[in-house]
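Something for you to look into today, if you have time. Could you write out one complete protein record for me, on any chain you like? Leave the record below and I will have a look.
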Amino acid sequence: MVRNEIAIDVKNVTKKFKIYYDKGSQLKERLLFRKRNRYEERMVLRGISFQVKKGEAVGLIGHNGCGKSTTLKLLTKIMYPDSGSITMKGRVSSLIELGAGFHPDMSGRENIYTNAAIFGLTKKEIDRRLNDIIEFSELEQFIDNPVRTYSSGMYMRLAFSVAINVDADILLIDEILGVGDANFQAKCFNKLKEIKANGTTIVIVSHSLGQIEQICERSIWIHEGLIRAEGPPKEIDLEYLEYMGMKLQETTAKELEKKAEREAAEAQEAAAQETNNAPEAPVQEEPEEVKKRWGSGKARITGIRALSGDGKAQRVFRTGDRITLEVSYKVKEKVSDAVFGIGIFSRDGIQCYGTNTRIDKLSEFSIDKDGVFEIALEEMNLLPGEYLIDIAIESGDGIPVDYFREAYKIEMISAAGDVGITRIKHSWNIR
């Protein structure tokens, strides 16, 4: 594989859609009520250009409606651009419309052959991969049952298993890691890392920026149909989250302002009835530093300590030491299906480790009162130097509740192997 060879070349692509106000469904309606055929043209992509090299993994990020999924559908040729060009080199597999080629009355096994053929495999190629596909899907007992008898989770497992076992040169993914149970999500995530290591070109759309930072070398931020920024995920994700944090603060400020106006009106009305019993004015919290943390604010991280093996708080450790991170938090509003996570980065931004309670398959839980969570890192095998730790609380839909970047700093003082993504044995304690 020539690393610098271009696998995907997108040049000045535009795409618009017609949005009908009230379109008749029958010919008679369209003729009699022509005004119902009025529409507006909505420009989704306004001329984007980018390239992806062979073996590179790129993440597309941006708010809902910015054009990420449209871009991915153009790459798969589900739809075509109004202008510009897209060049794809190699076999393409997509995880966008899972199971789009499945027939409900055919068995899972028969649908594997049909769906894999859509991706360009011959019958002999499918025969060789059949056992791997079935094994990954974990549907051995049901593989000869009609697909219409499958649950949505089983359906998704089979479709995913087919798509990742076609030995594609290019893999396109749209939010696929946000579905399915926690165990299968972790399994899919690990499979993607394996595929990437084997040289497959990957383009992924995801609102989970942590996943993008672990898989991708580059992020492309699409904003209102244009590429606003691109570069290393840790830098671009921070710019994007800073922007979204500002928007969230603006929205929150407006809501607080409206709430204050309502409460002031209620207080004025109450004062008219009982002058000495007016309610207190609402207190608005000071905004957090946008560049360091963001989220919905339903819960807030309030304290962080690093503990040695004997339970003493400290910030300097030796390579191989056991470190327990103790994080306290306050809850303002219940967080359903909560997720706690950490990321460890070297001073120059290289991610050394990252995990969360979903990846580690902890049972689902919600938080509705103040508490503490701990993660015990059994052996910190890192080079000497300073390390920055991101700590996050998320809700089950992947939306940050409190993402605290560079929340804590530790220092290692003895030698170890090369800095890079490593595996650290760890355990959680939530109380």
In short: The longest strand covers residues 6-20. The CA atoms of residues 172 and 234 lie 21 Å apart.
